[in-house]
Design a protein that fits this description.
The chain is α/β, with parallel strands linked by helices and about 500 residues long. It folds into three domains: about 240 residues, P-loop containing nucleotide triphosphate hydrolases (Rossmann fold, 3-Layer(aba) Sandwich); about 160 residues, P-loop containing nucleotide triphosphate hydrolases (Rossmann fold); about 70 residues, no CATH class. The chain contains 17 helices and 24 strands. The strands form six sheets. It has a six-stranded mixed beta sheet with strand order 6-9-10-3-11-12, with helices on both faces. The radius of gyration is 24 Å and the shape is globular.
């Protein structure tokens, strides 16, 4: 039952150098509700929640919890006032148990000794009360992403949180794990706790939330009851224009085989097999989507394809060329391009300009160089054309790439990797961390390139993205391909079960 306000924020203003991140923002959270905070990157939602959790302090405005004015100067203060936060990147110690991780910073004592039994009993109690299903004696490294997230949630509850903030909580979860998380959250609100979700997944928002507050450019655009709006209306509030979801896709006829993976086996970082007997063909003019929970061999498979990890056995063909032992730069010459998940760490050089980044893969080729000598005029012209064609928002082509927004950085990556119509385009989590407007743009690029005849291998933890874009879907689980289907054969339930190893 939803009751009165447990959290009130009035006229919150926060300035950073050159940026007004929060502009007189007011926000209310009711007891017993799930309230979604929705906004594009840079809209100010994370700033607002970091203020609530004491990570930063506002320049103006005030906060009340349970009707009483409070000053929150740190996460310790936040927890004292009953506010906990679960970040997208878990902060757990892998070689410690669930109970030991929970106890860190709030270790119960029996005399001079640590009393872990007290923690274990509390874990078991909460598991019964809220369906957390946690074994206190298991090590973190033994847990799935969903189970690790439950540990983070329990850490907040153990410290007395009645208000729980979750930042992109479903980003690394399989469909069954998402369903389990939502069951847990619903049990929380039934017990009178209140939840704030930061997310951009509209399907999930409509299924789990009671109210939605939309932010844009540091201001609140409105707060609405979920039952009174649809996805289209929310998207329009977000970006201030009509947004097309899903992006329209045409039926095409697949062409010749652009890449063939034959009985591929790849080792992981610890010497164990990460990819097992993997077979796949990707044809010109088709998108093959690989679905799976992170950690099931997808990263190792991609690294093997693009030349960043050795192929232990099997063959990789790019067109008719055997690329199994081919160095990475030769694979590029053969028509392979790559948009990695870690765009800032692996995709671009953030301390170099747009000009330098634009030719990072083909500076050895004409017209950008001749006999080993770079041709700056040709390079600058190329960079300018990319920025214009792909609508990369920047002050100039001399702008350092590290200063671009995530969406504009991704546009530049796609511009560089697709400008010469590659034979095979490998894209890994292409819209991760992007706002709705940027997601729409990136998905359209992928479909346009597919329609132009490029073969695309898509790896994404966002199942909706895989299902909407792919002509063929392959599910990976523990390094193996455990399910495959064409677009017209897609069954979401079967795919979700395969991702969880229940096929």
């Amino acid at each position: 039952m939803i009751m009165g306000n447990v959290l009130e924020m009035h006229n919150i203003t926060k300035r950073f150098p050159g940026v007004l991140a929060s502009d007189k923002v007011s926000f209310e959270l009711r007891q017993g509700e799930i309230h979604v905070l929705l906004g594009e990157n840079g809209a100010g939602k994370s700033t607002l929640m970091n203020i609530v959790y004491g990570l930063i302090q506002p320049d103006e405005g005030d906060i009340s919890i349970n009707g009483k004015p409070v000053k929150i100067n740190s996460p310790v203060d936040a927890l004292m006032h009953g506010v906990g936060m679960v970040h997208q990147n878990f902060m757990l110690v892998p070689n410690m148990t669930v109970a030991e991780n929970v106890a860190i910073g709030k270790e119960p004592r029996h005399g001079l000794f640590l009393d872990l039994e007290q923690v274990k009993q509390k874990i078991q109690q909460f598991s019964r009360d809220f369906g957390l299903d946690l074994d206190p004696d298991r090590y973190i490294w033994q847990l799935s992403a969903g189970e690790q997230q439950r540990v983070e949630i329990f850490k907040a509850l153990y410290r007395g949180a009645d208000i729980l903030i979750l930042d992109e909580p479903t980003a690394v979860l399989s469909p069954p794990e998402i369903e389990a998380l939502f069951r847990i959250l619903r049990s929380f609100v039934k017990a009178g706790k209140s939840i704030i979700l930061i997310t951009h997944k509209l399907n999930e928002i409509m299924g789990i939330s009671d109210r939605i507050t939309v932010m844009r450019r540091g201001q609140v655009q409105g707060t609405v009851d979920t039952a009174q709006v649809d996805k289209k209306q929310l998207a329009n509030m977000l970006v201030g224009r009509d947004v097309v979801f899903p992006v329209a896709r045409q039926q095409t006829v697949a062409g010749d085989v652009a890449a063939s993976l034959q009985h591929l086996e790849v080792q992981g970082d610890h010497g164990k097999a990460a990819v097992l007997d993997f077979n796949l063909e990707v044809h010109a003019g088709e998108i093959v989507g690989i679905a799976g929970v992170d950690g099931n061999g997808q990263s190792e498979l991609i690294e093997a394809i693009v030349g960043l990890r050795e192929i232990k056995s099997g063959r990789l063909l790019i067109g008719s060329e055997d690329a199994t032992r081919m160095p990475a730069f030769k694979r590029i010459d053969a028509g392979l391009k790559y948009v990695p998940a870690d765009r800032k760490g692996r995709g671009v050089a953030p301390d170099l300009s747009i000009v330098d980044n634009s030719v990072m893969k083909n500076y050895r080729m004409a017209p950008y160089s001749s006999h080993g000598i770079l041709k700056p005029e040709a390079i600058r012209k190329f960079a300018g054309n990319l920025v214009k064609k792909y609508d990369v928002r920047c002050a100039s082509i001399d702008t350092l790439v590290g200063t671009l927004s995530g969406g504009n950085m991704q546009k530049l990556l796609f511009a560089r990797e697709t400008s010469d119509n590659p034979r095979l385009l490998v894209v890994e989590h292409p819209t991760q961390g992007l706002d709705i407007g940027a997601i729409e743009y990136v998905r359209k690029i992928l479909l346009d390139k597919r329609d132009e005849g490029t073969a695309i291998l898509l790896i994404s933890a966002d199942l909706d993205e895989v299902l909407e874009l792919s002509d063929k879907v392959v599910v990976m689980y523990e390094g193996a391909a455990v399910h495959e289907c064409r677009q017209e054969e897609i069954n979401r339930e079967i795919i979700g079960m395969a991702m969880a190893g229940m096929n």
